[in-house]
Amino acid sequence: MRQNTPHRTKHKNVKKTNKFKLVN
């Protein structure tokens, strides 16, 4: 789930990905 869609969730869910990245 970490490297699922890094290029897709770049400008769509920036905050969401940020949170997940911090957790991961």
Description:
With 24 residues, the chain is mainly alpha-helical. Helix content is 42%, strand content 0%. 0% of the residues are buried.
Structural class: mainly alpha
Instruction: Give the overall average pLDDT.
Output: 61
**H/E element order:** H
Distance between the termini: 9 Å
Biggest beta sheet attributes: none
Hey, roughly how much beta strand do the residues contain?
under 5%
Q: What percent of the residues sit in helical stretches (DSSP H or I)?
A: 40-55%
Could you tell me the number of beta strands? Answer: 0
Secondary-structure map:
Blueprint: H1 14-23
Descriptive terms for the model:
mainly alpha, single chain, flat
Give a quick rundown of the structure:
By secondary structure, the protein is mainly α. Helix content is 42%, strand content 0%.
